[in-house]
Amino acid sequence: SRGIVLTLACPDAPGLIAETCGFIFRQGLNIIESAQFTDQTTGTFFMRIVAEPVAGESDAQALSTAFEPIAAEHRMRFTMADRSHRLRALIMVSKFDHCLNDLLYRTSIGALPIEIPAVVSNHRDSYQRVAAHDIPYHHIPISAATKERAEAKLAEIIEDERIDLIVLARYMQVLSPSLCRRFPGRVINIHHSFLPSFKGAKPYHQAFSRGVKLIGATAHYVTEDLDEGPIIEQEAVRVDQVTGPDELVARGRDVEALVLSRAVRWHAEHRILLNGTRTVVFK
Amino acid sequence: SRGIVLTLACPDAPGLIAETCGFIFRQGLNIIESAQFTDQTTGTFFMRIVAEPVAGESDAQALSTAFEPIAAEHRMRFTMADRSHRLRALIMVSKFDHCLNDLLYRTSIGALPIEIPAVVSNHRDSYQRVAAHDIPYHHIPISAATKERAEAKLAEIIEDERIDLIVLARYMQVLSPSLCRRFPGRVINIHHSFLPSFKGAKPYHQAFSRGVKLIGATAHYVTEDLDEGPIIEQEAVRVDQVTGPDELVARGRDVEALVLSRAVRWHAEHRILLNGTRTVVFK
Amino acid sequence: SRGIVLTLACPDAPGLIAETCGFIFRQGLNIIESAQFTDQTTGTFFMRIVAEPVAGESDAQALSTAFEPIAAEHRMRFTMADRSHRLRALIMVSKFDHCLNDLLYRTSIGALPIEIPAVVSNHRDSYQRVAAHDIPYHHIPISAATKERAEAKLAEIIEDERIDLIVLARYMQVLSPSLCRRFPGRVINIHHSFLPSFKGAKPYHQAFSRGVKLIGATAHYVTEDLDEGPIIEQEAVRVDQVTGPDELVARGRDVEALVLSRAVRWHAEHRILLNGTRTVVFK
Amino acid sequence: SRGIVLTLACPDAPGLIAETCGFIFRQGLNIIESAQFTDQTTGTFFMRIVAEPVAGESDAQALSTAFEPIAAEHRMRFTMADRSHRLRALIMVSKFDHCLNDLLYRTSIGALPIEIPAVVSNHRDSYQRVAAHDIPYHHIPISAATKERAEAKLAEIIEDERIDLIVLARYMQVLSPSLCRRFPGRVINIHHSFLPSFKGAKPYHQAFSRGVKLIGATAHYVTEDLDEGPIIEQEAVRVDQVTGPDELVARGRDVEALVLSRAVRWHAEHRILLNGTRTVVFK
Predict the structure, then answer these.
(1) CA-wise closest residue to D165 among D92, D61, D64
(2) Which domain holds residue D27?
């Protein structure tokens, strides 16, 4: 794709849309998508614009510099992304690889605008599946003794492969607080429950015990507080008495893969803006 | 409707269906609906049969007596209900009356097989709405000082009107433990969240603060532990950043009314069997 | 509510958002909601803006006049609605009144921003239900012989009550082509199928015969071609073999009421723009 | 899995459940799942029983022979399947292979109780994807001139591989009437619309033109009448103006894969009984 994606957040004020769109227009760009939202509870304005140059190529770096005075005046946080840059995503997985399979397939047919330069796992189980896609598979086993060394290896891969986004696709190890802090808003996890219900381990067994009639999955950004990060997307699916614990796991697979792939796509398309502990998603 | 509804639960064993259906057949009844379920985790067998007499009328009381030896042999809990008896439901409501309106309308067009001999409220707000349906409206205000007397009045109405089922249709007062104990499995509440998330007060505000992407409603039997009783039905509905706290309340209304009306219908049709802290629902 | 709602459609071009939002800003208004969409297949740009005056009151008529030069320059169709004006909706119904009941209730609690100055029916069935809301009920029976006179009466009510919107809430008579032509985009019908499946009469029976696993409902603007007008909203609900023709009707009721109330609300909030035979809905 | 699955359909009569379950009991089997349904419009009774031997092994062939007198007496169509036999499914695909990928993955993790001895395609596109699963890929190109020879090859594969079930997973060629007749109720197709809407070619483009607000997918048995066979499963997904024709295709992929995998699983578990042009599905 050509052009840029501008996202911004700032205190609400009259004239913000006119000023921002006026800037885009004067820079010789045509807006092809635009969405705004004002959080009335905090008085914060959020905006996302996709724009293409009327002629020639756009230079996201130059546009970013040109936009800085406006941003400064209105105390905006903003990003100016080049649409031709595909985010480089690292997928991490343990034994259950339905989300991994889903992400690999979607990426292979062009349905997910990311590149996957590497997959990391603490198990060997998914090696052949990843190899069939011709993507490097890094097996980094983790034990109490090796945890620190494993994280060092991971950090090396992230740096070497210039990773933009880490996707925890049913990765059952907890990332260290320091790693979480280094990538705020850039690590997405799928939790197999309808958060905040059933945090922690074995959510499907918790759901079975409580006798719920719907189960869910939640994609969220990872923060130091486990299962407490900003929620990106959720989905629920109906269950009943026939759905024993094993069948819950099976039903959950479909909804987990769907929810995670949506979250990754929205992130890759710069559709998600952080709003404190919540998210604004411009679908 | 003619005929009976038999529901039963007992330890699983070979031959239970054959023996029960054989009994029904020998009593001159034709099975028109039948469903079974075995909970593998507890080894409990559940069954529901709807049957009509091949000729003439059935006598639920006599059938119940005739079934007792089989029930005793297999340690069955069972109920034998006369389909011509409509459950007599007491509706209780505070200020928000969307669930009440829904139950009244469904009952009035024959979509809900219950009778509503009385509505009780701690407010006057819904009086005209109930009066338009020609149903007695009992205004029982509640304060710390009058709580005990109010419950005594309620108990009187329940007895006078031979109430089979109490429906808490957004009734914002807590029933006393003694009342809950007197009607186990016969008081249905609608909670405006996707339990076990957001127990207690103001669940929509809790949901907004946590930034969830789906909200829900839960119909459950009332026990002494608030919001912990066996879940009958749940439903979820999508929300996003545009959905502020007030709009959450509005979206929740539809799903609350739907979930509660399903739970009441299933109860009235003897489709719900208690399975410890969970429910088996034969839809 | 204070302020105005501006909706517009025109050939796409660079700078439209900046120019429109600049106009709003210069008129002393603050944008509180804004949404845009470009139909790539036709090159048409659509926009909806909700704005409040920074101080004092806004004058929709004056703003409309002031906006005309911009509109003319870009060949815009536009509307400038005063948010304090509630649309005056005429509800028409035959025998099934679940949609009517739903619209009356929502309006009574303020969930639907309309006024209902009159209900028209070719039957007497819903009289008491409407009377309980203190709304005039016009019984206009229709036969082949009286059809013309009935339409004349209807036209009189529409004029006397200054009706903005006609809602066919399971009204089983066909409006005359001339009436349809007089109110383009101002008559909303609920059809009890998932259009374009099962046009015409008895859609639930058609659905049962075909053995579908989902049934639906469709709210659409009425045009001279029956069941072919622009679709506003649709929803589907799961059915199975147990769902006989009567139960299909029962399940359909909930989804019909929900779909129609959404369509009416979106229309009343000026969220729907016609796009040829399709609609753009800014939710 | 051990044991058998018995499915049957016959004219309704009193005592059918008791007699059938009595047979199962006397043969030394324990019923672990059982479901019945009576179609009131045709007076037909349907039943499915899953049973395990209380001790040792069951012999489906012997049980079938033993059941024949009961079946003959009540004019039952019935099947007695050995649960240890996994259906052998041939997958056919053209260029879009999302359904194929989904079926391969589910089968590989044991979520779909089938074997896939062969994949047939009129294109080479999916070769590597199938090869990664170590499953033979038969490339059978089809043109007007080669159609007959292609079908002969297909018939050979079906015979050589003892195929029980043919799955058309977005196979864009029409099977010959003679092939359809040879495998009644054993060829499942996924159609990418909510049938009966948008039969024939390019349903997503038809859906876009009509401006529908939901799109769907339909899994059905193939008969000689294209897109008219008995429907097994359907699902719908929400779209809006932003969803252009290409994005409709993308959204449709998920729902197609889900619907087809359900249909294949239910067929493989003997959960689907034909009921004229409709299906009874015991989920």
Answers:
(1) D92
(2) 4-82
